[in-house]
TrEMBL record:
Domain Amidohydrolase: 2-68
Protein name, as recorded: Amidohydrolase family protein
Organism: Aliiruegeria lutimaris
Gene3D superfamilies referenced in this protein's UniProt entry, alphabetically: Metal-dependent hydrolases (3.20.20.140), Urease, subunit C, domain 1 (2.30.40.10)
The entry's keywords: Hydrolase
Length: 86
């Protein structure tokens, strides 16, 4: 399909640029700390027609605005994000 680097760029920096989100989509001082830590050898969509909200496999952590938003087996109760576009 796509090389990993191209897929990551399309899902982060390129998308943020198209949507005009100047503080998103890159890792640098002053940008929002939205990060996904994943195992490239294991990451895959696990959702199916009969189980559409099954989390992807291989996602180890997700940080939104520098705060933990997802970790398998851990309940995160405090929301740290906000709707950026509607």
């Amino acid at each position: 399909m796509l090389p990993l680097a191209s897929a990551v760029a399309k899902m982060s920096g390129q998308t943020a640029a198209v949507l005009g989100l100047s503080d998103r989509g890159r890792i640098e001082v002053g940008a929002a700390a939205d990060l996904v830590l994943f195992d490239a050898a294991r990451v895959r969509d696990a959702a199916r027609y009969d189980a559409p909200v099954t989390p992807a496999e291989g996602i180890l952590r997700v940080y939104v605005n520098g705060r933990l938003a997802f970790m398998p087996g851990t309940e995160v109760t405090e929301a740290s994000g906000k709707v950026l576009c509607a």
